[in-house]
Amino acid sequence: MIFNTFSKNLAFILLVLSSLNAYIQNLEPLKFHHIQDGMSQSSSTVLLEDKYGFIWVGTRNGLNKYDGKDFEIFTKSSDGKTGLSHEYIVELYEDDENLLIGTNQGLNVFNRSLNIVAPFPFKNEGLQIKDHSFQSVKRINGSLWLGTESSGVYKYDENTGNLKHLPVNNNLDIANPRINRIIKIAQLDDNRVLIISSYNIIVTNNDLEILNEVQEIENIISTIVLDDNTLLLGTNNGSLIRLKVSLTSKIEKEKKPVSPGFGIRSLAKNLNNDFWIGTENNGLYIYSNELEFKRHLEYNVSKPSSISGNSIWSLLCTRNGVMWVAPYKSGLNFYDPEYFKFKHINTDPFNSKSLSNKLVNCFIEDPKGNLWIGTDGGGLNYWKRTTDSFEHYSLKNKTLNSDVVLSILQNKEDEIWLGTWTNGITIFNTKTKKFKELNTENSFLNSNIIVDFLKDKRGRIWIINYFAGVQVFDAETNTHENIKLISDIDGAEVKSIYKIFEDKQGHIWIGTLNSGLFKLTKDENHWISKHYSTSNSLSNNFVNTIIQDSEGTIWVGTQGGLNKYNSESDSFKPITEVDGLRNDAIKGIIDDTYNHLWLSTENGVTRYDTCSGNFLNYDVDEGLQAKEFIASSTLTTSKGEYVFGGINGFNIFTAKDVEKRKDTLTLFVSGLKIFNKPVLPNDEFGVLKKNVSQVDTLIFSYDQSVINIDFKALTFRHPESVNYAFYLEGFEKEWNYVGNKPTATYTNLNPGNYTLKIKSTNSDGIWTANEISKTLIITPPYWQTWWFKLLMVFLLLMLFYVAHYIKLRTIKKNQRRLELKVAERTNELQCQKNKLVKAADHLETMNQEIQRFTFAVSHDLKSPLSNIKGLASLIPSEMPIEEHPLVEEYLNLIDTSCNNMNELISDITEIARLGKIENRNELLKTNEILNLSRDLIKSKLGKKNINLTIANDLPPIYGDRNRIIQVFGNFLDNAVKYMGDQSNPKITVDYEEHDETNSFLVHDNGSGLSKTDLKKLFTPFERFHQNVEGTGLGLYMIKKIAISHGGSITAESKGKGKGTTFKLILPKAKIAAKQAKKNLTS
Asked: Percent of the chain beyond pLDDT 70?
């Protein structure tokens, strides 16, 4: 009877243990990340997450601040003014104001402004605290409650320095009083305080008056506060105590053994309300909120992702659910439930029921939801998903004829076909686990290397032979057919075939290794093929995979990009890296029916949105088995999971599992350098008064010309995947996207105000609204400051004033000197003026006398000339001319000489009168003047047969009629006199119009003038042809007339015998008349 009862109990226990073991095995393993380097010491004694998100790690040799990438270490200093008072950290406590650090020898405070640690500034009675090993710190109602190692609890008033003390005695028979250290001080409701020591549980009021006290036999070594009245305690014997304090201060305890003989060193509660229990030398336990067992985790040398030690000294659950584990002398571990999006299944050399080989070629799913998996070197695997275990079928255990399974086909419910490397087709019975082999020796196969299968809608099995073409096997008729594929490029048969697929319309698509893609359509008894290659729209001729999505579109993955088939144009549209694809080697494609294609490549996994064309990329740090995947190694399970096989196992996931997180990271400025030298508060640079993360404005001198500003996004989840961008407003117009390099460098900024803006992605590469900014002020050199400019203006004004004052004094002195000189010079000038006036009067008198003399001489000379000419005219009447032929010649000479002399006297008289007679100007019709002048010399023109041409519509002249007639008459007369012996003599009169003047041109083709003659042309009494009558005063006179009309006369000639052009230049009539009127009024 006893034996039967024992047997039943034993059976029950074994059943429970078996169920528990199955439950544990079915749990997803927790993967921990290890941080071994960077800390001040490898044993973490206490962990804290501050309100900014930093992780503080207290060790036995210093304090560490961790931001996800780097540790900042605080240690003991020699001066005792800054730095830790002791290296051994036993408590970390943060309130709204400060971070307090309890050490074995003193309390310390972290100054955020200066980023330094310093001893806590106790005053008055606070200086009397004897035990400075502060094990627990709590701010309650404005006072600090300090729990020590051996002196109980102190209540310290920071404002007054007043101190109250509550000794906590150990009434047990234990010799060492230090064993009764204060473990925890917690605030209860109703203004009460709970004090937990090694062996005492005490409830007090705010004045340290004990309301209740109980002792605990088991040594309490860890605690965690659950709510205002409930705590969980861990004992040195491995038990948990759920402690509840009632409103009457009654203390209730519920004890549960967890790790007998192994003390519970640390406690934490995760966001799922599970308790994490760290033990001494017995690893980590996880219990539910109801204190039911869930897991036991231990260090496993064969599993790199296990916890790194079995003595767990500290635990922490952060606000985002990350669990931090501090094993003794083993650095830090953390578990992030969202760290890996993709579930990764791989080989485990220490687990005989893990995947047999890391190279995964193919999958199929059986009706139970389990997977058959073909590997490259490990044969066939059967994955029982309920137990997460693998059955192996291979050459090694003689359950298969090949270790390399390239393809799998579900032919019947209990029969799968395996395409192998060099062993043909293995037909495997999934029930009996027996197999038979088809090869080139015992069947129709063309090759023993079978790379792919297809069972079409008619039940035929298509077999792809490696470099041996396509075969179709019909099981009903037990016949087979060889399909030939002919290349459109060179007409050769294509045998390098890799992939086969049947679409919904019954078309067979065949992908090759180097010859592109073929589409087969059955036409009665013949297969019609269409060839697609790079020569007609396919992006690459190496085809890895072919699918048809839920919309009916064919997609082809090649080594050179993704290709979308357009049935209307019967062509493909390539999608490559140029379009945003991360990697062109498309190994596998899965359609999720939500307009997304999941692409496995040689550089991770990409999700392609077929509507928007957007890409989302996933990397190894998100749980992928490796960057590189194996072609066509894909599966969509009956549960909607996606499976991709690769070179390091396979990934299984759902679209929801791998959604990109949209969490926003906290950004902060982490460092500042000038000329690559770190800048600290109150250093020689004089830039910072506080830590750079605590200031909003940075002021630099103009000569601090090389500035480096470091920044970080606070995250412990793939910090290397965070990308950054920044831009300096006032200097730049666009953001600088710098990848994962969080530094902004600027050189030689001009003086002025700038705003540095910084933003980042989260660890999934999503840009979020976490922008921060800092004001940068570059102060100008003193010579560019406003006060210096104002001073310079003032000095310049003073300089101008002094210079003006000196100048005025100098001017006055010079003025006095000048007045004296002016007086002297005035007298001299007056004398000279008087002399000049007398000289002018004398000259006027002389001119008048010369004029009178000229008129008198002219009159006196003309009378004798008239008498001579009269007497000469009487000689022919008194003396027969016929008898004296020479007399007639002499008489002619006398007459000519008298005429010339008379003409000379007339010209001299006229010249004398020119300066005295005023012009009687009027508006003259130039053509009438010239016609009159022509009539006066008409006989001379006729005598020499000269052709005179006068232009019509010559512009009018404002001038003295007689004078103008004299000018044109002289021009024409000279032209006639100096015509020479021309066969076709001619004179032309024309004009040229200018802005304010008119030029009248009189041109002849007569004897012309030399350059020497032209220079002397208007000189009085100059004559250039001795055989031509004249006085040499005519041109001189008309030049004077032109000048008196505000004009001028010029002459041009190309030389002797080439004619001459005289040009009379006069103001336009309107201008001349207007000026005359103006002169008259003035």
From this structure: 88
Task: Tell me: pLDDT of 126 over 90.
Answer: no
Residues 957 and 1027 in one domain: yes
Q: If you average pLDDT over residues 210-221, what whole number do you get? A: 91
Q: Following DSSP, what letter does each residue of 989-1049 receive, concatenated?
A: EEEEE-SSEEEEEEEE-SS---HHHHHTTTSTT--S-TTS---S-HHHHHHHHHHHTT-EE
User: Which amino acid is present at 543?
Assistant: V
Task: Determine the average pLDDT of the residues in 124-145.
Answer: 92
1019 and 1044 inside one domain: yes
For residue 862, the model assigns a pLDDT of 58
Residue 1080: its H or E element: helix 1069-1081
Boundary residue ending a domain (730, 751, 784): 784
Average pLDDT value over all residues in the chain? 89
User: Which is nearest to 360 in space by CA: 639, 654, 634, 29?
Assistant: 634
Per residue in 929-960, pLDDT (tens digit) is: 999 888 878 888 888 899 999 999 999 999 98
In a domain, 772, yes or no: yes
Residue 16's pLDDT band (cuts 50, 70, 90): very low
- Does residue 366 lie in a domain region? no
Residues 752 and 673 in one domain: yes
Together in a domain, 877 and 955: no
933 to 328, 965, 1066: CA distances (angstroms): 135, 7, 19
Tallying the residues shown for the chain, one arrives at 1082
Task: Find the helix or strand (DSSP H, E) in which 957 lies.
Answer: strand 957-960
Side-chain-side CA neighbours of 838 within 13 Å: the count stands at: 6
Higher pLDDT, 6 or 118: 118
Q: How far is CA 897 from CA 869, 892, 903, in A?
A: 9, 9, 10
Closest by CA to 82, choosing from 60, 66, 67, 63, is 63
931 plus 1027 within the same structural domain: yes
Of 205-214, 268-277, 716-725, 838-847, minimum mean pLDDT range: 838-847
Backbone angles phi, psi at 485, to 5 degrees: -115, 125
| Structural domain boundaries enclosing 1020 | 918-1081
Query: 402, 423 in Cβ contact below 8 A?
Result: yes
Q: Given the DSSP bridges, would you call strands 947-950 and 986-993 parallel, antiparallel or unpaired?
A: parallel
Q: HSE on the CB side for 199, CA within 13 Å? A: 15
Is 762 a member of any domain?
yes
Counting the structural domains of the chain, the total is 4
Which of the pair, 883 or 318, is modelled with greater confidence? Answer: 318
Residue scoring higher pLDDT (351 or 1022): 351
When pLDDT is averaged across residues 252-265 and rounded to a whole number, the result is 96
Identify which of 617, 542, 532 has the alpha carbon closest to the alpha carbon of residue 585.
542
The residue among 900 and 513 whose pLDDT is bigger is 513
- Are 762 and 665 spatial neighbours (Cβ–Cβ below 8 Å)? yes
Q: What is the CATH number of the domain that holds 689?
A: 2.60.40.10
DSSP letters spanning 122-184: --GGGGG-----EEEEEEETTEEEEEESSS-EEEEETTT--EEEE-----SS-S-GGGS-EEE
pLDDT in tens, 376-398: 999 999 999 999 999 999 999 99
Asked if 946 and 1047 sit in the same domain, the reply is: yes
Q: Note the pLDDT tens digit of each residue in 357-368.
A: 999 999 999 999
Q: Could you tell me if residue 496 is inside a domain?
A: no
The DSSP 8-state label assigned to residue 478 in this structure reads T
Burial pattern 81-103, b for ≥16 Cβ within 10 A else e, equals ebbbbbbbbbbbbbeeeebbbbb
Are 995 and 1049 within one domain?
yes
The phi and psi torsions of 898 (rounded to 5 degrees) equal: -65, -40
Are 566 and 572 in contact by the 8 Å Cβ rule? The answer is: yes
Fill in the amino acid letter for 439: N
Q: Which of 784, 802, 826 is a domain's end point?
A: 784
Residues 809 and 688 occupy one common structural domain = no
Q: Residues 714, 665: contact at Cβ < 8 Å? A: yes
What is the Cα–Cα distance from 119 to 113, expressed in whole angstroms?
15
